[in-house]
Amino acid sequence: MLSLSFLFWSTVVAALVAFWWQSDKIKLYAIGYIAHYCKSRNLQLLDQTMVLRGLWPIRSKEGSIQLRRRYHFEFTSTGEVRNKGIIELVGRKIQDLKIEAHIMPNEQERAH
Question: Which letter, b or e, does each residue of 86-96 get, where b requires 16 or more Cβ atoms within 10 Å of its Cβ?
């Protein structure tokens, strides 16, 4: 027979795995968005990675509680200088995208 303790810990582990899986899907969505954004502006997303720098529960416009995630990433316009960028998501919706000032490459000097 299953004990109450086993059921509790099984539920906790399942919730953590579901949270991790959902967070990974959201991060992959954000990376894809940033990669497309950079490519459309002749920029190069460096390392193809983003780092989670913030995670907060907030109330959405609809009144439900969702997680706000802030990711930091780096890009380059010249291939020589690393620039920083930040993307914020609430749930699966992109709220804000900020990138540092950078040199705009000419068509002949594309970063890719």
Answer: bbbbbbeeeee
**Cβ-proximal residues to 83 (8 Å cutoff; 6+ apart), any chain:** 74, 75, 76, 77, 99, 100, 101, 102
* 16-38: pLDDT as tens digits: 999 999 999 999 999 999 999 99
Q: Could you tell me the residue range of the domain that residue 73 belongs to?
A: 4-109
Largest CA distance in the chain: 71
Total domains in the chain come to: 1
- Cα angle: 13, vertex 27, 98; to 5 degrees: 140
| pTM > 0.85 | no
**How many other CB atoms are found less than 10 A from the CB of residue 66?**
17
Under DSSP, is residue 105 helix (H, G, I), strand (E, B) or coil? coil
